[in-house]
Amino acid sequence: xxxxxxxxxxxxxxxxxxxxxxxxxxxxxxxxxxxxxxxxxxxxxxxxxxxxxxxxxxxxxxxxxxxxxxxxxxxxxxxxxxxxxxxxxxxxxxxxxxxxxxxx
Length: 104
Fold this sequence. Notes:
This protein is an alpha/beta fold. The chain has a domain at 2-69. Helix content is 30%, strand content 13%. The longest helix has 11 residues, at 59-69.
């Protein structure tokens, strides 16, 4: 893991490694490296992303994230997700009720 971070030019910098599902080997190889955290994609939150200078996704985590953002469920084992259907636009607008005149 340390050699990968060195080749990527981010050794010694804050980095977040994002995986799809629990990957024990990734966690074990990164746990003793300072400034490096590991998170599962499904548990990822804005604070984690914003507090790390570098965010690195595994291929499976990135594919699942892209699939989810396109409106489908997370891709399972490389299977493509179905496209989300678009709702028909509303064609009529509700009118506000007419105001009553005050009596004198």
